[in-house]
Each structure stands twice: as C-alpha cells, then as structure tokens.
Amino acid sequence: MTCFMFNQWKLYANGELPPAESKGLEQHAVECPQCQIKLQEWVDYMLEEEFSAYPEVPVPDTFTDEVMSKLFEEVPVRTARKRSSRTRRQRGWDIVKKTGLVVAGLTALVVTGTAVSPTFANYVNSLFQIEKDADSGMKNAVNKGLVQKLEQKITDQGITFEAKELMADSMRIAIIFDMYDQNGKQIEDHSMKLQLIDSNGKDWLAEDGREESGSSHGQFFITELSLNDIFESAEATPDQLTLKIVPTDIEGKTGKWELEIPVDMKKAKEATKTVAFKDAVYQSPQGLELKLKQIEFSPSATRVMLDSTVPKSAYVEFERAVLMYDKDHPEGVHITNKKVEPTLSGGDIAYEITNEKGEVVAARDMFGLDKGIAKKKNVLYVSGLSSKQEGDITKWWHTFGPLQGEQKLKFQLQKVYENKLASPKFDLIPEDLNKKAATFKDETGSSFTFSSFSWTPASGEEKGKAVIIVEGTLGKDVVSIRYWYVKDENGKTYYATLNPESTRDKDGRVHFKGELVIPKLEQAPKRLTICYPEYTVEHHVNWEVPFEIK
Amino acid sequence: MPDDQELIEQILAGDHEQYRQIVDRYKGKIVGYLYRMIGNMPDAQDLAQDVFIKTFYRLHDYRPEYRFSSWLYRIASNHCFDEMRKRKRTEQVEIDEEQLIDLDTPETTLLKKERDTELERSIMLLDEEYREVFVLFYIHRLSYREISEQLSLSESSIQMRLFRARKKMRDSLAKTMGGGAIYEMLHV
C-alpha cells in the first residue's frame, strides 16, 4: 500500500505545491516512512540532475593512483574493521541538536577529577537541565535521575572526543559530547557512527546506515537516539546496553576516538509504567477496526500504541488530476491518475487523553487537517517511525510529552475520518468573477463562492498560472477537500490546488477561504468547470477506555 | 564491465583494488562538479580526492537499493558545502584585514555593489520558503543540520528547497548576469 500523499511528491519536488501544502508534506514525511523514502528518492533524483548539468573534465591517471595510495598506504588497518551488514535502512539517530549553552558558562558546573559512578546518580546540575533545546521530556527524565555524568574522553592526533553526559530513558537515549583540538578549539566538522550493543553482542543499530556529524561552533553537542522503533516495549529493552560511538571522520582525519559507554537501562525500565489493554477494540460502523494495545509512560515521553485494520471493502478507486513530470514532459503535464486507496486509516482519527478533572492532557488529530480546526495537544515529535505495516495490520506509535504520577486517565476516541468520492461541477466564466462572484451548492451541503479571477501569462520557464479566490462553508461533518481539478472550455483537465485557512463555527461547520491555483495554464480560459473528486468527513465517536497509572 | 553494485560487493569482500575502477568511473564527474563550485582545478582535485577517500570509508553504509552515483554525489556535495563554509569563514577574516588597508578601488566597489544588488534582487524574487533556506545556507553558511533545527524540517527537505532555490536563482541571474553567475556572486 502506498501512502495517500504519494501523488504530491512530484508536485513538491518541482515546486508546484503552495508553500503551506509543501510544508505540510515535509512535516508528514517526518512521520511517514514511505514518504521519507520518497523524499530521499527525489533528493537523489535532483542530485543526479544537478550533476548531469556539469560537464565531465579530463582528470589525469595519477589522480586515481594518489587516491589509492592515500587509502592503502596511510591507513590500511581501518578498511577491514569498517565492514559490516550491507542490508541497511535508515532509522534511529535523530538530528544533532546544539546545546543552547556556551562553553564558558559551564566551567563552574563541570567538575573534573571526581570519581565516575557507573550508575545513574541524581545529577542536579545536568547540562540537559539548562539546555534550552532539550524538550520537557528530556528535562523530566533528568529530574527522575535518568542522567549519568560521563568523564570519558579519548585523544588521538591531537583531537579529543569527550562524552559529558548521558540521558537514558526507555524511549530514547541522548548524549552531550564535545570535540576539540589541543588548543581547546572546538571542532564541528565531524561524523560518527553508533552502535547499541546488548550483552549477547547484538548491535541493535546494525541495520542503521546513518552517520552523525557536528553542529555549531563554540557549544557542546547533543544527539538523541530514539528507542521507539527498536524495542516494542520497556520489557523488551535489554537491561544492559553499550553505546559505542565511533567518530569516523574529524576534520577530515581518521583516527582512534572510539568510546564505549555502558548504559544501564534497569532504572529507565523501572521508571517506565506500562498500561496494557485487553480487548480494547473499537469497530467503526464504516469498517475501521482500532485496537488500543498499550500506553507507556516513561519520564521522557508517553507512547500510545494502536493497531488498525481496514476491510477490503474500504478500498476504492480515486481519480485525481496531477501534474506529472517525466522524460517526455520535463516541464510537467496535467494528467489524471487513478489509484486504489482505503477510505479509512488508523492515522485518520482524533483522540484525547483526559484526566480526572476532565482536562485534556494529550490529543492527536488527523494528519494534514488544517491547523485552524485540528485538535492537538502535547504531541512530541521524537525521531523514529510512527507506523508500520505488518500484513493487514498497521501499527501506530504516537508519542506525547511525559504524563507522570499516579492518576486516573481516559483514552477517548472522538473521531474517525473517512474519504468519500464526489462529483460536483461548478461551471463559471472566469472573466465575470471580477464583476460578480459566483456561488454554488453541492450534494454534500457545502457552498462555495468563487471570486477574483486572475491569470498570469507565461514568462521565461514559468508557464501561465490562474488564481481564483474561493470562500466557502463545508457541509455538515465535511472537514476538508484536498484535491481539486478544473476543465477548460475544450474539456482539457488541469490539476488545481487550494490552500485554505479553516475555522469552525459554533455548530461545528467548517468555513474556509483560500486561493485556488491552477499552475501551467498556458492560455486564459474562457470557461472553467471546477471539480473536486473526493472530500473528507468526520464521524463522531464516543469510545472511552479508562485506565490508571499506578 | 562490472556495474557499480558488483564492484562494491567485491570491494566490501576485501578486493580493495576494485575501488580504482569506481574512482576512474566517476572522477571526471566529481572533479567537474567541484571545479564549477570551487572555481580552481587544483582545489577541485584535492577535494575530489577527499570525496573518494571518504566514500571508501563509508562504503559499508551504502544501501544497494539506491543508485551508487546518487550516494556518491551526496557525499561530494556535502563535502563541497562543508568546504565552502570553511572558506567563507576564512574569507571573512581576510576581508576584514584587507579593509584596514582599504584596497577597494572605486571601480571594484561599484562592481561589488552592482553584483550585491543583483544578488539581493534575485534572492528577493524567491518565494519565502526558498528564500529563508537559501539565505541561511549561502549567506549565513549554516549546515543542513543547523537549518533543519532552526526551521523544524528534515535535512532532505532542506536539500530539496535548496535545489529549487538554486534553480530559480540560476534562471533569474542567467537573464541579467549570464550563466554560472550564481556561484561567482556567492563568492565560492
């Protein structure tokens, strides 16, 4: 099954999506493994394209000899050690965040020469505590004593790699480290490889091909490893792990800077509470089956784990207009595309977790819903995958900020969203819109007012473009219309895109306003038929699962 | 002739001599790219050697489901931008020192001003989403990673935005300044 957003990537890559839609897709990719791959494919494609634009230059044979001699005469030993598994996928290591803390400010806190405790201590003056980029979850984990001061360092070729602090929670591990030369000058140009090894010698990151590299000058470095997609529960996490950090390249030099940091996960595991649910299954009348499996509460995060299944009957054929780019149409061409997709998804739901006072402590809503009408609270975007497909079941792992302390809570499923096919047609004469707006109603009970038409003729590589202002009120329970297309007087179909700003009125009806943009429209149309092939409705649900953190 | 995939398998299996074929296969392309970006051949060749050495050490990270060339280009372009960042910093210091003895003639000042105006104009023509990334990367010389933190976007998204921005900049500058002007104007 391909992601619902797949059609958008070509438009995105060619800069055809409106900014908000582009940003939405980029944010979606952070959570969607399929789209992460798609995005990387596009980056690669653009790279290939860019490189193909540069002419090859003649390079003397001695060039290759020099590379080979540099490789095998200077550091022949390293090559053998570097080999490892080759079936890799990207996962795990998150973006290195730089600490918002200058080195000078730390001298009072970093006491050297004290004995290193191999266990976690309640380390009050933690760097994590005062680091502005550490999220509330990290800080909370530190408060719970899941931080260990490290004084491990190694120097080779005049360069010192020093691990300063480790935060180990059952959901994630973070390290603050530094790298500097003999004059104490910090080195930001570095990359390193990580291994997370259990007592049997298994490297849990063995499939992870990613390397880390440095950040800004004059500050420490902090990097975070998500355990979310490695271990399915706190119990499944080994008690003892060893984090091996292997800098592979510091300022272009290779050397021996490996550090092995023992990570005692017992305290992190003890600090993580898990509520497992039995038979907490919701069956929506539309056919979506949702199973609340468990919720984990660690000091640094809360993880809601759900399984979803969609019946075969929920798969329908959608037909959308898209702008396609290929070899024959490097400038892009409007085509229509058919795709069979489910109308329901475990990702297209809205739920809340409330406490005894009825306060919402965490909430999640359908991805891609306009932020003006989406209800989200305490959502934490930690690294790692948020869903994976296993047979017919899709597993969803949603992460929120920490929820701590004994309390009675309630998981409340509030909405299941569904995509529906539609076939409205609004015929209008574009030129007339500037004199008088045109209003239409359709079978969903939605009304649309089109006004202010403008068309920009082609200039340079940019082909023409038309823009129509659309304002409307969606029918009862309709929340969004994602895909649009138009037909001109000759019956030719064009992809169109709307980037709305939405609000809800007191009756829950969605009002929106935005620009409907028709890119690559070479001639000003005399007549236009505006259509949308599908729309999203919300089904209100009141399914509650009470539980208790003990 | 063995394809890239076969060669890499052999190299990873210990037949390091096969790497020679990879270098021969791509050196013209990599040096060509770096020459265009950096502007002089000796530096371009030095950097290209670094790229091939780096690539060799990272071969175990190469994932066969992707094209080898894309992966190599990724390493080359990252290495190039790292180098450009370093140079920009050094250049900044040199400029400051130069200014103390005031080497600027009225002609060079005027030329510089014209170029800056042209550059600024074409930057302003970029859509906001591209402009901010372009400015952070080329003017402030932040890394992909730093920009991704600042804008809460993935590094791949930053790369994509930069591709788009570069293309738009190239198009708009080509009209007024001729091809290739973008790199000259960004002092790389």
Automatic annotation (TrEMBL), chain A:
Domain spans labelled DUF4179: 95-179
Protein name: DUF4179 domain-containing protein
InterPro entries to which the protein is assigned, alphabetical: Anti_sigma_zinc_sf, DUF4179
Top-level taxon in the UniProt lineage: Bacteria
Family annotation (Pfam families): DUF4179
Automatic annotation (TrEMBL), chain B:
This protein's record includes keyword Transcription: yes
An MF annotation (GO) of this entry: sigma factor activity
Keywords recorded for this protein, A-Z: DNA-binding, Sigma factor, Transcription, Transcription regulation
One biological process term in Gene Ontology: DNA-templated transcription initiation
Domain RNA polymerase sigma factor 70 region 4 type: 118-169
Domain of life per record: Bacteria
Domain RNA polymerase sigma-70 region: 23-90
Pfam families for this protein: Sigma70_r2, Sigma70_r4_2
PANTHER family linked to this entry: RNA POLYMERASE ECF-TYPE SIGMA FACTO (PTHR43133), RNA POLYMERASE SIGMA FACTOR HI_1459-RELATED (PTHR43133:SF8)
Membership in a protein family: Belongs to the sigma-70 factor family. ECF subfamily.
The name this protein goes by in its record: RNA polymerase sigma factor
Species for this entry: Brevibacillus formosus
